[in-house]
Amino acid sequence: MTTAKPEHPVTPRTKDEISAITNRLKRVEGQVRGVQKMVEEDRYCIDILVQISAINAALKKVGFSIAERHTKHCVSHAVQSGQGEAAIDELMEVLKQLSK
Amino acid sequence: MTTAKPEHPVTPRTKDEISAITNRLKRVEGQVRGVQKMVEEDRYCIDILVQISAINAALKKVGFSIAERHTKHCVSHAVQSGQGEAAIDELMEVLKQLSK
Amino acid sequence: MTTAKPEHPVTPRTKDEISAITNRLKRVEGQVRGVQKMVEEDRYCIDILVQISAINAALKKVGFSIAERHTKHCVSHAVQSGQGEAAIDELMEVLKQLSK
Amino acid sequence: MTTAKPEHPVTPRTKDEISAITNRLKRVEGQVRGVQKMVEEDRYCIDILVQISAINAALKKVGFSIAERHTKHCVSHAVQSGQGEAAIDELMEVLKQLSK
């Protein structure tokens, strides 16, 4: 049995879910632009680093909420259809990356 | 003696230094927009998480290069003028944040 | 329906699994004692920090392997008996801690 | 000019400094042994992971306090004797490892 890499979540995200995530990512995008401006104005290093840490924290939070939904839908679905192993290996791999 | 919070690095960043950092941040901004698009297209969770991890890694790298320059200029300058303690406390505090 | 906090994994660890993990933890314990000795001998800071980083990496690896088995057994079992939500929330919470 | 890798901090740690760090490391060692016992008793995965996260946090804290003292003594001394560059590169390298 082959398992083609999926293109989409097993349960499509609702419009509300999509706009909740994209709103958070737009805020992150704005923060990144804010840091660019700080660098262009040659602002104090520590102030820039505080912003970069905040962006990382925000991104990690988005990442974990996507991972949580993924586990509740895609991974759970895989478990129920007897393909949990591969789905869980894939999840753990990406969480290790995210936790670096 | 009061030490007002500095507005700028003790050695101004050169034009080249500024554009090197802003170029990296523009790439990060592009990556964040890329993730937004992936979410809008309801793409597979793991693929999104791989991208988010990559952005975090890129941001951390920018952060550490800013911290390195900060230590070589601002902190070193503070050390030479007998105000190393406070500068180093400030540096460590922000590096703890960045390392979360 | 109440869900009492479990005392044990849903599938007991085999003797081999237990000794694989405790062996890794004994190595970690040895590394921690090694760092104590380095500090007592007033060894160079950077050498100590390299060892501490190595211990953290080893512990994170053990943590992720425990989390993986947990997901493959306890969480999967919870999913199959319709109690996936709570199990996944609990898993994500602890992975956020581990990733700090 | 050659810079041999140092064996010791530029300012020797006092007895008090040494016992403060080794006490923290002994506590960490005790925690690691505690986790071994939990694994031998086949305790619930999440409870084990919570302990592992706590150990990692404790070790990171020790690491940062060693890094701080290192910067205030060894790195500052290097800066004052015109060898700041190499000392700062070395510091940043190890902090990147610690922050993973």
From TrEMBL, chains A, B, C, D:
GO terms for biological process: negative regulation of DNA-templated transcription. It holds the Pfam family Trns_repr_metal. It comes from the Bacteria. InterPro entries: Metal_Tscrpt_repr, Metal_Tscrpt_repr_sf. GO terms for molecular function: DNA binding; metal ion binding. This is Transcriptional regulator. The lineage of its organism: Bacteria, Bacillati, Bacillota, Bacilli, Bacillales.
